[in-house]
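[User]
Protein folding is very new to me. Any chance you could explain this protein sequence and its structure tokens? I have pasted everything here:
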Amino acid sequence: PESPPPPYSRLSPNDEQKPLDLSDSTLSYTETEATNSPNVTPGDFSDASMSPDAVKRSHWCNVAYWEHRTRVGRLYTVYEQSVSIFYDLPQGNGFCLGQLNLENRSETVRRTRSKIGYGILLSKEPDGVWAYNRSEHPIFVNSPTLDIPNCRTLIVRKVMPGYSIKVFDYEKSCLLQHTADLDYADGPYDPNSVRISFAKGWGPCYSRQFITSCPCWLEILLSNNR
């Protein structure tokens, strides 16, 4: 598009990533937090995904939070056009990872969780899904539309703090033709999913070859074409 949708800015070191304009009004949140922890008394927090108005609309994605190979908490269903996924965000609502309890967390996971901070903002736009890194550490992203066509090498993009990236391109997704013989060593291949790791990268350029080796990561399951 000629002008990027808010809250983007055209000032960017390249065409793929754009810095986040923190002055945009869409980043203002009400003072509520969502929780998916069974150990928190119901009613202490408000869950935006389950509001009566939201239930009437169809969801556009589900978000799963993982620590290594363990999924923590339930799937978080997203109805709003944008959702904040964070560990600690003052006056924030959305998917609060800080409220998800798990026994016997490793020290590596604890350290990585402490780096999530304000986390990311996921936004569904006409051209695709964008992710904005609001934390103070890099995030790492892989999706079918970020991969190079006919290349069997896993492509993982590093997004620095304050920048955004189109993690899923609707038009490109329609053009991609996935064959049945694709062999992905790190698990089943989903053409409508995005994987995002906090602070730690994975893939050919890192000691962690698979995302299941990352301490804290997200699986964005898009309802597009499902």
Notes: Helices lie at 52-56, 107-113, 170-175. Confidence is low (pLDDT under 50) at residues 1-6, 8-15, 20-49. Residues 113 and 216 are 7 Å apart (CA to CA). The radius of gyration is 17 Å.
